[in-house]
Amino acid sequence: MSEPVPTEPPAAADPNVWWRALVRSFMTLLLGEGAARVFGLLTFVLLARRLGPAGYGLVATALSIISWFGLVADQGTTLTPTRDIARNPERFRFIAERMLALRLALGVPFVAALIGGAYALSNSSYDRATYIRFAVGVPAIALNVRWLALGIRGARLIAIGNVAAQVVILIGVVLLVTTSADTPRMAYIAAAGELAFALVILGLLIPRYGILRPRIDLAEWRTTLRSGLPLMVSAAARGVLYSFDLVVITLLIDPAHSGYYATGSKPAFFVMQAIGLFYVSFLASYSAAHPEAAADLLRRSVRVGLGLSIPVAVALTIGAEFVVPFLTDDRYALAAPVLAILAWKIPFSAVASPYSGVLLVGDRQMSLMWNHVIAAIVTIVGDLIAASTIGIYGVAMVSLITTVVILCLNYRSAVGHGLAPPIRGTLLARRPQRDPEYFDRG
Predict the structure, then answer these.
(1) What pLDDT, in 10s, does the model give residues 382-418?
(2) Are the C-beta atoms of residues 302 and 351 closer than 8 Å to each other?
(3) The domain containing residue 65 runs over which residues?
(4) Number of domains in the chain
(5) What letter would DSSP give residue 75?
(6) Helix or strand or coil: residue 100?
(7) Is 139 exposed, middle or buried (0-12, 13-18, 19+ CB in 10 A)?
(8) DSSP-assigned letters across all residues of 107-174
(9) Cα separation of 128 and 95, whole Å?
(10) How does pLDDT run across 341-379, given as a tens digit for each residue?
(11) Which residues are CB-neighbours of 108 under 8 A, at least 6 positions away?
(12) pLDDT by residue (tens digit) across 219-260?
């Protein structure tokens, strides 16, 4: 169940070998994501049509809040360990068992914060009860070691688990959600999907590593949290980037407009998920690669990402007025301009992701943290102003601007720390020159 890894000695490493390994890992993830997205698309269509804008907006907002925990836990407890596992795969079981326990422990304060926030900020008792129900999915998210599996080239495991999760969610929606009155049931359906994802991966790891059991190891936790704290703060800030728009629309406008916004963002979000998969594949390959091969991975990743993402953004912009009604119905006409705006986040994210990976591998977590904190501040201030004055289209513009800010900040940090060459060399050079000033990854 694992991907092959280049075996050349570092001095003879061929950049093409490492690029092919990265592409193999990414394509495996993408194929699994593609299959999962087919089921996810059907789920989205059913929910949008059966729940209506208000019900779907409530579900989308709740799921975005829950995703904060997954994002923070993944960044703080899996990205740095994934790097370490990629460099020393024999430590997978030791690391994975301790990270399982740490993730479960981190879920406790998050559930408490979710319940407290639901009581403090919900507009109605119905909304409050719905948000609280979604807390049942937190332990299932904590059990998912998908990104750690990338360190042992386990992309197939993630793909299989992803498909299983989406199938479970689709079946639940078909059987249990028929009208807007069924909106609270989505909490349990989403939790079942997350649990299926986690259990499939853990089950497929048994032949190689046995049953992984959460283990309390305070010393290891302290080490992980100390190195991962900047990433966790960064992830919390990224959660603001991904979720604050829906929350502020729900609070300052109404859940129906959250439904319009979530519907318009969905096609762009599907593509952004693929970019996220490429990012973690890039991180695993870049961490293990010889410096010259790593330099080539960065160059190709930026160029290919830019070349593929611009046509996708153009197509979504032009086709927004046709895509949204086709997937949903006439009630969601206000969502088309949202898609046309958010589609342009795709190329900026495609270029920003490799630079984020370079900073992480180069142990520049603090730079990543501050870059995302700055972007989160821009998002909060911008969304509050835009939602109060312009509406959902203004919020979409803020989201696009924030993505550009992240790209600029990550690029400046990577080049400033000597971890990447200037963009001209990355885009135009046939092969980056071997230069320790640029490719010393720590």
Answers:
(1) 999 999 999 999 999 999 999 999 999 988 988 888 8
(2) yes
(3) 12-439
(4) 1
(5) I
(6) helix
(7) middle
(8) HHHHHHHHHHHHHHH-SSHHHHHHHHHGGGGHHHHHT--HHHHHTTT-HHHHHHHHHHHHHHHHHHHH
(9) 37
(10) 999 999 998 888 888 878 877 778 788 888 989 999 999
(11) none
(12) 888 888 777 777 778 777 877 887 889 889 988 888 889 999
Q: What is the pLDDT of residues 265-313, one digit of tens each?
A: 888 887 887 776 666 667 666 666 666 666 777 777 778 778 888 998 9
- Which of 441, 419, 437, 420 has its CA nearest to residue 288? 441
Total number of residues shown for the chain: 442
Give a yes or no: residue 44 inside a domain: yes
Whether residue 143 is contained in a domain is answered as yes
- Whether the pTM exceeds 0.85: the reply is no
Please, where are the H alpha helices in 210-290? 218-252, 255-288
Closest CA to 236 of 379, 137, 123, 343: 379
Sign of CA dihedral 219, 101, 274, 49: negative
Q: Annotate 34-65 with DSSP letters as a single string.
A: HHHHHHHHHHHHHHHHHHHHHHHHHHHHHHHH
- The alpha carbon torsion through 273, 274, 276, 280 (nearest 10 deg) reads 140
Question: Which residue reads 């984020």 in tokens?
Answer: 356
Residue 6 is assigned to a structural domain of this protein: no
Report yes or no on 32 lying in a domain. yes
20: exposed, middle or buried (Cβ count in 10 Å: 0-12, 13-18, 19+)? middle
Dist CA 212 CA 173 (whole Å): 31
